[in-house]
Hints:
Largest sheet: 6 strands, mixed
Number of strands: 16
Oligomer: single chain
Amino acid sequence: MTDRSIDSRTFAKWLDDGAELAILDLRSKEDHTGYGQPLFGKNLPADDLLEQIHLYVPRKGVRTVLVDGGDGRGADFASTLYDQGWEHIHALTGGFPAWLESGEAPGRALDIAGKDFSLAVKAERNTPAVTVQELKERREKGEDIIVIDTRTVPEFTRNHVPGAVNIPAAELLLRFSETVPSAETQIVVSCAGLPRAILGAQTLIDAGVANNVAYLEDGTAAWRRAGWELEEGLTAKYGPATDESRQFGRDHVAKFSTADRIPTIDLETAQQWAADPERTTYLLDVRTPEEYAAGHIPGTLSSEGGQLVGLSSRTIATRGARIVLIDDLDGIRAQTVAHWLSRRNFEIAILRHAFAPVDAQAERATIAA
C-alpha cells in the first residue's frame, strides 16, 4: 500500500499557493455540521466517496486532499484512488483533529460562511429589516404585506412563518411578478435565520423592484422564540413562469451592477473547458431540481441556485476552478447567482441553453405534490 499522506504544514502551504486544490471532507453529514467548518471542503462521506468523487472532482489530475475525522480512513481511500488513476490524491495525517491542533487552520477556508457574507452585505448596503413582532403587528393592522421564504422546497415544507409563500432564492426575479402583482405590496423575505433572507431581500433591491422590501430578522428561529407556532407543509409555492414573469425577470437582472461583467459562453466552449486536462471547470445547472430531472446537458451537475449562493462548497470542491452557471435562454437564475458568487472571487461564466419546455400541467403537478 502506497503512503499518500501529508502533514498539516504541507497542507497549509498548498492552501496558500494559489494552485488548484480539491478538498473532500469524509466525515458523516452529522459531523460535517452542514456548513463544513473549519475548511468548507465538499462533504463526501466515506461510504459515498468511491462512487461520487468524479462528480465533485471532475479532473483526476488536480491535487486532492481527503480529510477524515481522525479514524485513518482517508489514507486507505487515498491508496485505493491512487491505484485507480488519481495520481495526486493525498490524505491529511490525523484528519480534522490534527489540523485543528496544528495551529494552521485560522483564516484558511474555501468559502465565506453564509452568515458572515450576508452580514457584510447588510452592513455595506444597509439592507432594511423587520422583526417578527413588527410583522405580526402590520398583519393585524391589515397592511398589504407578503412574506417570501427563500429556502428550498423541502425546508419550507418542514416549517415556515404562517402565510409565507415559497420562492427559492435564485427563482425570485423569475417568479416575482406572478407572486406579487402589486407594486404597493410590502415584501418581507424570510429564511430559517439570516443569510438567505438578507441576500434575497438585497437581490430584489439591487434589481430595482418597485416594492418596499425588507428581510425578517432571524426568520423562523425568531418566530419560534416569540412563542408562536410555525406552519407546516407546502402551503403556498410559486407557480409556473409566464411570458410576463420572464420579461419582468429579464428586465430586472439587467439592473444588477454585475450584469455586464459576467461573460456568456456557448455549449461548445463549456464542453472544451470541461475537457481541459490542465484546468478544472464545473458545469452547474442552477435551475430547479424538477427542471434538471426533466432534461439537462450530459456531464452537468444539478446545483440549485439559492443553495449554491448560500454555500458553494456543497458542490464546488476545487479551489481555483472555473464555474459555468447553466440556465435556460432567459438566464435569470444564472445572472442572480453570478451577482453574488462574483463577490467571492470565483471565475464565472454563464451558459444559456434551449432546454425543451417543461409542460405547464406537469410543472403545476410537481409544485402541488
